[in-house]
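From: lab user (bench 3)
To: helpdesk
Subject: output format question, protein + S-adenosylmethionine

Hello, I'm new to running complex predictions and I'm not sure whether the block I got back is the full result or only part of it. Here's what I submitted:
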Amino acid sequence: MPQSWLRLSVRAGAADLDAVSNFLIERGSPGVVVKRSGIEAYFRRSRTDASLKRAVHRFLRAIERLDGHRRKLSARWKVFAEENWHHSWRRFIKPQKIGKSFWVTPPWVTPPKLRRREVITIEPGMAFGIGSHATTRGCLEFLEKAAGFLRGKDFAALDVGTGSGILAIALAKLGARTIWAIDNDPVALKVARENLSFNGVEKNVHLSGAELRRIRKSFLLVVANLTAETILGLADALAQKVAPRGFLILSGILHEQVRAVTRRFGTEGFVLLRRKREREWVTLLFKRK
Ligand SMILES: C[S@@+](CC[C@H](N)C(=O)[O-])C[C@H]1O[C@@H](n2cnc3c(N)ncnc32)[C@H](O)[C@@H]1O
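Helpdesk reply: Thanks, we reran it on our side. This is the complete output you should expect:
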């Protein structure tokens, strides 16, 4: 029996695209395609379809209530069989050049060979981090920058909230000697393990569900793409993990939350070197004094 799928089409304005796509990824869609006027997301059909639909509709109504939205976010569901699946969302996921160092690609496409670009292959699945989100891109660009500052040094790195493992893979490709990657979601850990292995870097990465506070080591490079709330909650633990004159990259921060984060890490002895904004998302690169 071919697997059948649900296709959800949501019409939404630019301001809501990130929130809606994040939610659908969190609800387990392996294929979320963001278009100019909305989003298409694909879900494997299962016995929980009814509760998925209810959760999506509740979320869309909650978004509509925010900031006095006037426009309705409309949602349409369609069922279709496996054979159509390959011709639908897959064709929208293309290899992307990120920064000066990377191609991020799904496994079914071979990106053109370009000198000096490392290929990171990510199977779009149940974890965040296929390179299409502003925060992942911001982290990849700043990882490249920080690794440039550390060139010639033998450095270890920590990836907090590894999701698909994309940043840990990038760190391995940028020459980190060892990488610690943690996530508190067992599904993300499973997906990350597969992606690390597919990219041939599983030996360089210690992947685990360890709590940040339980890690006793310090690192010359730490990256955390979480949310501002989580980052502030973990600020002392994150700061402690960065070795003197080491680098800290933080993302998942909304534009209006940047000041609170920079102030907090200022008090922890960090200097802000760079910030990058893409739409409402900001990525910060700090150096520890
Ligand atoms: C936005 S995703 C980032 C994924 C990937 N690093 C990227 O940049 O695309 C955040 C990830 O952090 C994980 N996470 C959230 N809070 C965490 C915590 N306190 N400790 C470890 N992982 C956490 C989530 O499960 C999720 O996989």
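A quick orientation on your result: The first helix runs from residue 14 to 26. Let us know if anything else is unclear.
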